Amino acid sequence: MMSDESENDGVYVDNQESDIYYKKFKLLLEECSNMQRSNEILVFRIQETDKITKRRHKEVNFFKQRLLKNYSEDWTVIPKTNLIKEEEDTKPSNLVAKERIKEEKLEEDEKPEKPVKTPKRPAKRTKGKAEKDPNAPKRPSNPFFQFCQEQRQILMEQLNSELKPGEPEPTKQELTRQLAIKWKSLTVPERKIYVDMYEKSKEKYVVEMSEYKQMKQ
């Protein structure tokens, strides 16, 4: 038979082992609780960041609409030069140079087509300047000017309808600037309409000019 002392020793060892496992269990519970708190903080921060981002987008869209309505400045078309300069300051010089070359090429492509200027011949010495014949056919306007002729009145009415009491009417320079912005925003198929109109007008001008020269002879 076992003595009382040996039985007490066995009970002590069991209690000691159970105390160790219980301490480990408590530590695990504490770590899980800390992880849960950290996750809750992260979720809260993500939600707050999402709210701030959405609010910022709303504010940006509001100010864009306000600029368009009050000052006729369409910031969906006009490049944000200040922001571009700030981004360029933080980029390497070689990347900035490449991006500037791309922007210059895009700007050249978007410029309105200008009529081809023929070299001026030296004026002959005559007693008086030759008067232009009012019956002579007129040269057709290039695609951009044909677009301006069609859209000028429509744009003028639109800008006047958006004016507030006491505000002056837009000047010719402002109207031309707005027309240029609209021209740049046109797609290739939309511009092709005016290019085709120009080509047809040019063909008609050639025919009328040949008939006019025959009548003059």
UniProtKB/TrEMBL annotation:
PROSITE patterns attached to this UniProt entry: HMG_BOX_2 (PS50118)
Q: Which InterPro entries does UniProt cross-reference here?
A: HMG_box_dom (IPR009071), HMG_box_dom_sf (IPR036910), HMGB (IPR050342), INO80F (IPR056513)
Compositional bias annotation for Basic and acidic residues: 89-105
Q: Which superkingdom heads the taxonomic lineage of this protein's source?
A: Eukaryota
User: Where in the cell is the protein located?
Assistant: Nucleus
Is the 4Fe-4S keyword given for this protein? Answer: no
Return one Gene Ontology term, BP aspect. regulation of transcription by RNA polymerase II
Comp. bias (Basic residues): 117-127
- Ranges for region Disordered: 89-147
Q: Could you tell me which SMART domains the record lists for this protein? A: HMG (SM00398)
One GO MF term, please? DNA binding
| Gene Ontology CC entries for this record | nucleus
Any matching Pfam family:
HMG_box
Keywords assigned by UniProt?
DNA-binding, Nucleus
Domain HMG box: from-to ranges: 137-213
Keyword Lipid biosynthesis carried by entry: no
> What residues are annotated to bind DNA?
137-213
Q: What is this protein called?
A: HMG box domain-containing protein
What is the species of this protein? Brassicogethes aeneus (Rape pollen beetle)
